[in-house]
Design a protein that fits this description.
Layout: H1 5-27, E1 30-33, H2 36-41, E2 56-59, H3 62-74
Antiparallel strand pairs: 1-2
């Protein structure tokens, strides 16, 4: 039985996640969180929508943010800049990938 496009994409993410995490840890001055608890905490805001991220990066400097985006581009990983998580800015992150 073949995998659907969405299932295949998730399987690809699972395989790439350790490599992406290592690259981010090596190149970004900041917190790199790929644990289940952090991912769950950033999966939702004050709205009813939930989308679990591949990982979370909290850069310490502007340069670190630039480095994080560069790494994500290399891995074709989506990037979502997050504010306070209140959903007052129009449900960022709740849309389709």
């Amino acid at each position: 039985m073949g995998a659907t496009g969405r299932t295949a994409a998730r399987d690809g993410e699972r395989r790439e996640r350790p490599s992406l995490e290592r690259a981010l840890r090596d190149r970004v001055d900041g917190e790199v969180r790929f644990d289940e608890g952090s991912r769950a905490a950033y999966a939702t805001d004050a709205s009813n929508y939930q989308q679990v991220p591949i990982g979370v990066v909290v850069p310490h400097t502007v340069e670190a943010a630039v480095a994080a985006i560069a790494v994500c581009r290399e891995y074709d990983a989506p990037v979502l800049s997050r504010g306070g998580g209140t959903s007052l800015g129009g449900r960022p992150g709740a849309g389709p990938r």
